[in-house]
Write a structure and sequence with these properties.
The structure holds three protein chains of three kinds. Chain A has an eight-stranded mixed β-sheet with strand order 6-7-8-3-9-10-12-11, with helices on both faces. A four-stranded antiparallel β-sheet of chain A has the order 2-1-4-5, with helices on one face. Chain A starts with a strand and ends in an 11-residue tail after the last strand. Chain A has a single domain, classed as P-loop containing nucleotide triphosphate hydrolases (Rossmann fold, 3-Layer(aba) Sandwich). Chain A is an alpha/beta fold. Helix content of chain A is about 30%, strand content about 25%. Chain B has a single domain, classed as MetI-like (MetI-like fold). Chain B is about 75% helix and about 0% strand. Chain C is mainly α. Chain C is elongated, with a radius of gyration of 22 Å. Classes of the chains: A alpha/beta, B mainly alpha, C mainly alpha. At the A-B interface, helix 2, helix 4, helix 7 and helix 8 of A face helix 10, helix 11 and helix 14 of B.
Chain lengths: ~325, ~350, ~290
């Protein structure tokens, strides 16, 4: 199966008052057609920046290196008109907070149709009809009157549905969803995830789902990459990765999740320490200062991401190699 | 569905907008009443012999005329009664008689307002166009050379005394180069177009008098530009910060992610969102234009309300002072009221509150 | 206004922004302002001639003998500009301090006591704001009688309300924050709360406002004098000198140089005020601060 999106050696550097900070440092991944690819990691691990880089949405002055093959083109080389032809048309994007990602002064209809008319060449009426259809698909009640409403007239969950409808309007092949459920109530989250799952099946859509919440991941992702401090530390199929995590960091993330089935007295384990800031990346393995399994080599040598046992892993120690 | 629809099916902005409008209107009326009180008190403080200045020396010697005058304006009554009389005259459109022109103040205002209105109109349009453009440019080029240059230039613009730029403009544009006329609204001896709005450029256009239109415009160039200078700078500064408040927002990024051209992103996503903040400054711009008019009209011999106010103040022409300041204040709060309403119209979130 | 207070505190903790004095505009503004202060203080020693002496050939254009030329009565324009600094700058300083004091007091009381005090003072503020500043100042100056002192008083009348509004807003927002609440609960006296917690948060924004207001005050004061409502002849005052220059505008130096003096003095305080605002509000700063 050929990948829909293939990213190699992606590196993002952002300008700061004290020189450049490398927030994404050589990341490889691929997204297969009609699959959900999950990206997980703590905040500041470079998840969002690596996605914004694809559509040239980084803040001014950012430097991007690497390759991102998509439909025979390298997204990172596209500029201006070429990039805009892909953005919003072949790749849709959903942002974290639906309270801020919709323009407060434009109607839902305006925000839903403007790129359809531009990319698909639809007339006002055709675009309006398609907008109603889309709102119906994402289960917005009264879609026709919703077209004339403003974002503040909807709840957070409804707004995120609208944002998803906007991202899907031009029939993209890839949907990038950056923490689409983080800002929402837990009950609302489930609805959004089910919606994404359904749309993915109905539209033959690939989804990149960014989240720090492995529970969200476990419900719909097909494959998962774990990001840490701008690097991938482990990636593989969801079942493999979540049932038998091999990297100490993946393991720690899973241990930090509450398990309903777990025994009452099993303590929730928080990961000690905080992820390093991009300006103070430790030498060797980036995770070693927080890793209980770190040995001497970890402090000096940065482990490469290598295929191991049906997955890819970046760890010198690999303490869980034999399944515990 | 898990998240129950909280959205109102049929949004009814009209009724809540009406409430918003009525509330503002009530505040406006209260403020207007307050203004009449302030104006009344101020005029009572003026140390002058109202009878003598209004009737002239001869009539002032005639006790019957004096009594009639005093009775008409209630000068023989205590203050609260006089205020009440003042209000009653006001409601009848009687602002008194100017002691300088010996005409009704309302008549004088009618004479002088159009000239200032025309000047203000052009300079506000100029200021809004350039100020907003420069502000957006500065914000989009934040911390780059263009931005720094615009910062210094706009600070310079708000530091120049308007009456001084007027003088320099007059000296260069009229006296040295001879490119522009130096005084009045039309060339000497030229008859104004038939009175419709009182704005010569508009009336000339309505009458199809192209030559006259061009001439009126020619006369407007210097004073309008001079009046606009301060406000271009002011609007540049306000627009810049309003835009900067907006550019970092997610919805701007979302607009770019949709593949919209940068031009559309700037206009529809950034400028649209920054507009309410810019519009609120227009009230301030209006006040500045009036301030400027008072100072600039003197230099360009522009027969406007600024000159009238100045003459009234300098000559302690009490009814004229009262009439002008009342008129200007009421126009000013009305402009601010309109700005409020515009704000509500531009930002749908306000309407519903 | 409340965000301003918040940012002030946030800044003190973060402290990543550059200090104001390292910004070129602040330096330029400070230098010019100090220069004018020095000129004002030492005017008799700096000025080459008596500003009132009509001893020279009238209407000479600028030359080595008279750098700024002479006016229609044969007075040395340079000396008059130098003496003019003794009028505009000190009076502006004085009247802005007065306005800030009155406004600050009214706003502080309104914010602290709320209720009726607040209602009355804020309605008064609204009323003053209902007039374009120059109109009110002009009328007040006319009513009080022409003259520099009355013009300055008129400007105080139009200037105090902005301080009242800002201070009231700050006192309200600071009073609502938890630390003041907890200080009160802990039994801190009203005075202690005021001086320890409220005042430091109010001082910064008021200082910024006052600096920018100095610029406005100089403009307005010279404007009133230009109209003939402020300084009276033969006193050397910049605004009235420009007005005089307007009558003889073919002798450009008579109006141009005093106008330049106003411009530079106003510019200095605008530079300073703008840099100060950056310092307190780096979000939209025009300086080199990055977030």
């Amino acid at each position: 199966m050929t990948a829909l999106l293939e990213v190699e050696g992606l590196r993002v550097r952002l300008p700061t008052p004290r020189g450049f900070a490398t927030v994404v440092d050589g990341i490889d991944y691929h997204v297969e057609p009609a699959q959900v690819f999950g990206v997980a990691g703590e905040s500041g691990s470079g998840k969002t920046m690596s996605m914004l880089a694809l559509l040239g949405l980084l803040p001014p002055g950012a430097v991007v290196e690497g390759r991102a093959a998509f439909g025979g083109k390298d997204l990172l080389r596209l500029r201006g008109r070429e990039l805009r032809a892909v953005s919003g048309r072949d790749i849709g994007m959903v942002f974290q907070d639906p309270m801020t990602s919709l323009h407060p002064m434009l109607t839902i209809g305006q925000q839903l149709t403007e790129h359809m008319r531009r990319h698909l060449g639809l007339g006002r009426r055709a675009a309006g009809d398609r907008a109603v259809e889309l709102l119906d698909q994402v289960r917005i009640p009264g879609p026709r009157s919703a077209l004339h409403a403003y974002p503040h007239q909807f709840s957070g969950g409804m707004r995120q549905r609208i944002a998803i409808a906007i991202a899907l309007a031009c029939g993209p092949r890839l949907l990038i969803a950056d923490e689409p459920t983080t800002a929402l109530d837990v009950t609302v989250q489930a609805g959004i995830l089910r919606l994404l799952d359904r749309l993915r099946r109905e539209h033959d859509l690939s989804v990149v789902l960014i989240t720090h919440d492995l529970a969200v991941m476990s419900s719909i992702a097909d494959r998962i990459s774990i990001f840490y401090a701008g690097r991938v530390v482990e990636s593989g199929r969801r079942d493999e990765l979540l049932r038998r995590p091999r990297h100490p960091y993946t393991r720690a993330l899973l241990d930090a999740l509450p398990h309903p089935e777990a025994a009452r007295d099993t303590p929730l384990v928080a990961i000690k320490g905080a992820p390093p800031s991009p300006q103070q990346i430790p030498p060797g393995c980036r995770y070693h200062p927080r890793c209980p399994y770190a040995i001497e080599v970890c402090t000096m040598d940065d482990p490469p991401l290598v295929p191991t046992d049906g997955r890819r892993l970046a760890c010198h120690v690999d303490p869980f190699a034999d399944g515990e | 569905m898990v998240d129950a629809p909280r959205a109102r099916r049929r949004p009814r902005p009209s009724s809540s907008f009406l409430r918003f409008l009525l509330r503002r209107l009530a505040a406006l009326v209260l403020l207007a009443v307050g203004i009449t009180l302030v104006v009344f008190v101020l005029t009572q403080l003026v140390p002058s012999n109202a009878v003598a200045t209004n009737l002239g020396e001869q009539a002032a010697a005639d006790p019957a005329a004096v009594a009639a005058f005093k009775a008409h304006y209630g000068l023989d009554k205590p203050l609260p009664v006089r205020y009440w009389l003042y209000l009653r005259h006001l409601l009848q459109g009687d602002l008194g008689q100017s002691s300088l022109t010996h005409d009704a103040v309302t008549h004088d205002l009618g004479q002088f307002i159009p000239a200032t209105a025309e000047l203000a109109l052009y300079s506000i349009v100029i200021a809004a166009f350039f100020g907003i453009t420069f502000g957006v440019i500065a914000a989009m080029r934040r911390n780059r050379p263009t931005d720094h240059v615009l910062r210094v230039v706009s600070l310079g613009g708000i530091s120049m005394p308007t009456f001084w730029i007027a003088l320099v403009a007059l000296y260069v544009g009229f006296f040295k180069l001879g490119w522009f006329p130096g005084a009045d609204r039309l060339d000497p001896g030229v008859l104004p177009p038939p009175h419709k709005s009182g704005l010569y450029t508009i009336d000339a256009l309505l009458g199809g008098q192209w030559g006259l239109f061009a001439q009126a415009l020619h006369h407007l160039v210097l004073p309008a530009l001079v009046l606009a200078a301060f406000n271009v700078s002011l609007l540049t500064r306000y627009t810049r910060s309003a835009v900067l408040e907006v550019v970092g927002n997610d919805y701007v990024r979302a607009g770019r992610a949709k593949g919209l051209p940068e031009r559309v992103v700037v206009r529809r996503y950034i400028l649209r969102a920054a507009l309410p903040a810019v519009v609120t400054v227009l009230g301030l711009v209006f006040a500045n234009v009036l301030t400027g008019a008072v100072l600039v009209e003197k230099i360009f011999s522009w027969p406007g309300i600024g000159q009238y106010a100045y003459q009234a103040a300098v000559n302690l022409d009490v009814p004229a002072i009262a009439g002008v300041s009342l008129f200007v204040a009421v126009v000013y709060i009305t402009v601010n009221f309109i700005v409020d309403i515009l704000y509500g119209l531009i930002d749908p979130r306000i309407r519903v509150r | 206004m409340s965000t301003l207070a918040f940012r002030m505190r946030a800044r003190r903790r973060g402290g990543t922004t550059r200090p104001a004095w390292r910004q070129p505009l602040a330096v330029a503004g400070g230098v010019i302002a100090i220069a004018w202060l020095v000129v004002a203080i030492f005017a008799p020693f700096i000025a080459p001639h008596d500003p009132l002496a009509q001893t020279f050939t009238p209407a000479q254009s600028p030359s080595g003998a008279h750098l700024f030329g002479t006016d229609e009565l044969g007075r040395d324009v340079l000396s008059r500009v130098i003496y003019g600094a003794r009028v505009s700058v000190p009076i502006a300083l004085l009247l802005v301090s007065l306005a800030a004091l009155i406004g600050g007091l009214v706003g502080g009381l309104a914010g602290y006591f709320r209720g009726i005090v607040d209602g009355i003072s804020m309605r008064t503020v609204d009323l003053v704001f209902a007039f374009p500043p120059i109109i009110l100042a002009m009328v007040v100056a006319a009513v009080l009688g022409r003259g520099l002192r009355n013009a300055a008083l008129a400007i105080v009348v139009v200037a105090w309300p902005s301080y009242a509004r800002v201070v009231r807003g700050l006192v309200l927002s600071v009073g609502d924050t938890e630390y003041v609440e907890s200080a009160r609960l802990l039994g801190a006296s009203a005075r202690r709360t005021l001086f320890r917690d409220v005042l430091p948060n109010v001082a910064g924004p008021v200082f910024v406002l006052a600096t920018l207001d100095l610029a406005n005050a100089i403009l307005l004061l010279s404007g009133l004098s230009f109209l003939g409502l402020g300084a009276q002849p033969p006193q050397a005052e910049w605004g009235s000198m420009v007005a005089n220059g307007a009558q003889y505008f073919q002798w450009w130096w008579m109006g141009t140089f005093p106008g330049l003096a106003i411009f530079t003095a106003v510019l200095a305080f605008n530079f300073l005020g703008d840099s100060l605002r950056d310092f307190f509000d780096p979000q939209t700063s025009w300086g080199g601060d990055e977030r």
